[in-house]
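A reminder from the course coordinator: this example appears on the midterm review sheet, so study it carefully.

Given structure:
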């Protein structure tokens, strides 16, 4: 189904050949083949066909505006002798994957010794890409169909048979054939490849498992030289992961890749005639600012807004889907995708507030050298030397105030490795300090430290913040942190209750918060509500970004997105729970630590509970209920023994 060239294209080809009309017909054909092979647009017009999405019919490949913009940038790099390196964030219906494969096919079939590798995120996507290459080949003009040596379900090898090569070599002639190939595979097959690659296309990279390792392996196989190609393209899959991180680096100019994102409003066809009469909602007002920044003609602004309003009606059943399909910018594409647990729009607002807020202080909480002072610890500030690097693990937004109550949630590092872009990092230990009155995060310690030393840091910070109530997650190494605090006689530790599991076992109180399948949904749902309703105030961008990358998996469980962290999320979730217990008097333990221990009749010990203490009435009821139960069981056993005595 090869297409004839248009009159304009034909004239262009003729103009590129010296003395065209003076040449013989074979010479004219040979000259035309060389010109067409070198010019992607002419080659595409003559040879390439695609399947129409609406009719499923094979039709000529006519490039749209976004495809042309990408091709122009690639051709400019080739002409300048630069390696082609692009990371592409796709919006819907742009056809950028199709045009990348067209570039790949054009380059591979018109040059010798080209090894092209295409990696998709799953098998059916890889098959679709392979089918696209076969369609290009089968519908090309026969002149531009190179010999195929192999045609498997995954590979197209353009070469002549080995016996033909041997014959030419025996005659001392240069054998025909390109010795070029196109390989398609899924991501898990691409790890650890070492053979040289001239053209690499990673498709839907945001959805790859271990994407950083696969890309690193592929890039090592692609020479950093002219006439080499690397394309990483994907739709967004939430904030976080290799693709998101590499995209952010590319935007900052800190990556070898050039970022490309085409928003819906860049498309001149996405417009409706009419006027908005000056009435716009908040989202539309933001769009008007973008339109002005982009330099669109002012008369087109309302037409774009009207198109957007009409398009949104198609997504009434799932309004959030519109932002995935037609994001206004790259950040909205990332935020609208994935399965975030927390309200993304509210987190965006929190991030804007945090970015405008005064920078936190950095330093350490250290013992006070003045032994006469009532303050056992003081805050010693250190200067910030490098703006992009925190000088200490401790950030402080507000120093402690007299008569204020504070709570602390601690997530202890479990030593897990997180892979983020090209880095492998241990998870963090986090101490989250919150003011009870307004649930504002006044300080946060985040770093790597041994669990026992973390207890010493927590002791200093907790004492400094008015003997704050401390809740330590004790699932793993947290028991060591709790023991460190107890060894220092910290008197305001959160205590959870252990249920009566055995017949004669007392209910006892255990130090620390335990996160399990029952308690984790409780604290996470509590934080979902707090963020959605704007109940908390946190000016730490690290925490907000972690919330953005905290997602729900296919089984409904919540965790950090691959390659990201959730340590500040868990510390905050525990701390919000501590706020429910913040009515405990910090001096309660001190007042009762030396109370005489009273003995129950069965010899077990219990501490007297004051009538006005926290949960005192309930605890007394439990003690009485336990004693009554023990008394009944003893009476029943005594009666049983009497009944069995011989008369």
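Designed residues:
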């Amino acid at each position: 189904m090869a297409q004839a060239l248009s009159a304009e294209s034909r004239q262009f080809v003729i103009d590129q050949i010296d003395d065209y009309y003076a040449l013989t017909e074979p010479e004219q054909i040979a000259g035309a083949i060389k010109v067409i092979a070198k010019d992607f647009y002419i080659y595409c017009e003559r040879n390439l066909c695609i399947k129409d999405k609406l009719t499923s019919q094979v039709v000529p490949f006519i490039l749209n505006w976004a495809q042309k913009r990408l091709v122009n940038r690639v051709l400019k790099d080739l002409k300048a002798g630069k390696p082609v390196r692009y990371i592409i964030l796709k919006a819907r219906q742009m056809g950028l994957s199709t045009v990348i494969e067209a570039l790949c096919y054009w380059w591979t079939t018109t040059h010798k010794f080209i090894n092209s590798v295409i990696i998709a995120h799953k098998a059916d996507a890889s098959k679709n890409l392979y089918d696209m290459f076969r369609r290009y080949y089968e519908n090309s003009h026969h002149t531009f169909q190179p010999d195929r040596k192999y045609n498997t379900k995954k590979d197209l090898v353009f070469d002549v048979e080995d016996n033909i090569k041997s014959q030419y070599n025996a005659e001392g002639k240069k054998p025909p054939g390109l010795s070029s190939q196109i390989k398609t595979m899924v991501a898990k097959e691409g790890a650890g490849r070492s053979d040289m690659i001239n053209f690499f296309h990673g498709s839907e990279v945001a959805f790859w498992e271990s994407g950083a390792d696969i890309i690193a392996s592929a890039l090592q196989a692609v020479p950093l030289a002219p006439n080499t190609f690397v394309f990483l393209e994907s739709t967004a899959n939430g904030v976080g992961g290799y693709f998101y991180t590499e995209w952010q680096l590319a935007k900052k100019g800190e990556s070898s890749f050039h970022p490309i994102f085409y928003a819906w409003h860049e498309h001149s066809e996405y417009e409706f005639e009419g006027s908005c009469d000056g009435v716009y909602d908040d989202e539309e007002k933001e769009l008007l600012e973008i339109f002005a920044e982009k330099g669109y003609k002012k008369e087109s602004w309302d037409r774009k807004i009207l198109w957007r309003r009409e398009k949104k009606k198609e997504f009434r059943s799932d309004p959030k889907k519109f932002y995935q399909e037609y994001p206004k910018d790259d950040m909205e594409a990332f935020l609208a995708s994935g399965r975030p647990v927390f309200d993304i729009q509210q987190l965006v607002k929190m991030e804007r507030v945090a970015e405008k807020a005064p920078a936190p202080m950095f330093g350490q909480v250290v013992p006070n050298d003045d032994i006469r002072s009532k303050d056992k610890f003081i805050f010693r500030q250190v200067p910030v030397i490098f703006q992009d690097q925190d000088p200490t693990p401790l950030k402080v937004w507000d120093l402690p105030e007299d008569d204020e109550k504070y709570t602390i949630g601690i997530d202890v590092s479990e030593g897990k490795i997180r892979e983020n872009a090209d880095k492998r990092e241990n998870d963090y230990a986090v101490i989250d300090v919150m003011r009870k009155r307004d649930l504002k995060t006044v300080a946060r310690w985040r770093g790597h430290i041994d669990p026992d030393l973390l207890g010493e840091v927590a002791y200093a910070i907790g004492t400094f913040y008015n003997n704050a109530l401390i809740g330590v997650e004790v699932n793993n190494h947290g028991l060591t942190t709790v023991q460190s605090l107890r060894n220092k006689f910290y008197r305001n530790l959160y205590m959870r209750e252990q249920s009566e599991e055995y017949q004669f076992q007392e209910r006892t109180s255990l130090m620390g918060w335990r996160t399990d399948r029952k308690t984790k949904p409780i604290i996470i749902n509590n934080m979902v509500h707090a963020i959605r309703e704007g109940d908390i105030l946190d000016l730490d961008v690290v925490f907000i970004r972690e919330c953005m990358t905290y997602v729900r998996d296919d089984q409904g469980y919540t965790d950090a997105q691959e390659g990201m962290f959730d340590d500040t999320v868990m510390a905050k979730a525990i701390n919000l729970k501590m706020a429910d217990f913040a009515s405990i008097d910090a001096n309660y333990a001190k007042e009762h630590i030396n109370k005489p221990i009273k003995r129950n009749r069965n010899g077990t010990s219990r501490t007297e509970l004051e009538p006005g203490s926290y949960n005192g009435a309930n605890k007394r009821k439990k003690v009485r209920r336990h004693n009554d139960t023990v008394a009944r069981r003893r009476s029943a056993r005594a009666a049983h023994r009497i009944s069995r005595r011989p008369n």
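DSSP finds 21 helices and 25 strands in the chain. The chain has a mean pLDDT of 85.
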